[in-house]
Amino acid sequence: MLKRLLIAAIVIVLVAFVIQEQQQRTSGSRRPRKSQPVHTRRGARKLTSPPVTSFVSDTGGRELIVRVLDVGQGDATYIRNGSSRVIIDGGPDTAVFGRYLDSLRLNNSTIDVVILSHQHLDHYNGLRELFRTSRHIRIRYFFENEDPATAVTLARLRDSILSRMDRDSLIYRDTDDPCSNGRRICTITMTGGAKLHILAPMPGGEGANNRSAVVKLIAPDSAAFTMWFAGDAEHEEISWFETAGYDRDPGMRVSALKADHHGSCNGVTPRYLALLKPQWMVASLGARNDYGHMHTQAKAIYRQAGVPWYRTDQNGTVTIRSPGADGKGFSITPERPGVDLDGPSDRTSSQGKCASP
Ligand SMILES: [Zn+2]
Prior knowledge:
binds zinc ion; 15 strands; 8-stranded mixed beta sheet; 9 helices; Metallo-beta-lactamase, Chain A; alpha/beta
């Protein structure tokens, strides 16, 4: 009898192993191993584009889900709460962002709010994929600063926006006046109870980065989780946030920060972190980038302030969940483990405005 039980147990373990092996083989979430060669030639970068995890658990409810997507050197964030869906930026690559749209099951759906933080390709280009006819994605609101720009790809995105506007199927909002009421703050409530404050960028900020719109996200229980997204805002705009009174209304203290400007030293100051007091920071960047992100000086500032970080180039997509029930806090989970990691492109920046580490 004992012998039979033993044999049965061995068979069950073997079957379970085979099933697991099969799942790993068929799963879309498998990533190239670290030991595999990495292409560094400019033209070959797309070959290292991240494969996409399945996000079937994004089913709605009061839970707030934030996914800082691993789109390479750029930013893209997907937010879900109740039936509301929000996208902030789309990363640099239409194919990579398109694969996320597939895995997030956003084809044939409505995106309530799309926000383009500012006019750089590493933030807007992926958003063009939202307008691909075959995806049948409806967009209710599209926010951007509408500053004049010469890039052909941005002009194409704007053509798509305007064409939908003409058909009365999309509302196009200028982040300088986000609620079209002359106020700098526009608040949107998601159906699960989470709130989104869209904050106007610095008027006349120098360069596109310092014209980044800000989003402050607040969980249904505001004490449980809040997050700050400020695009690629640099020192000039970061200090203006205080001038604009954002530290008082809507308040800058948050649970988590999406790092400004991909972990550049010009996207963080000790004062900024003193105002935000984040418990976590997530930087979105590509492992091989020409800018030296994350900068040594930036990492020193985050470390000094006691802010641990995840970074998409090393940790993959980072997912934050807040249950939506009072006092339940939040969880933050990277695709791949490791905290405060370094990356292959990290270096000390020679920018004058960045102090030595
Ligand atoms: Zn950027």
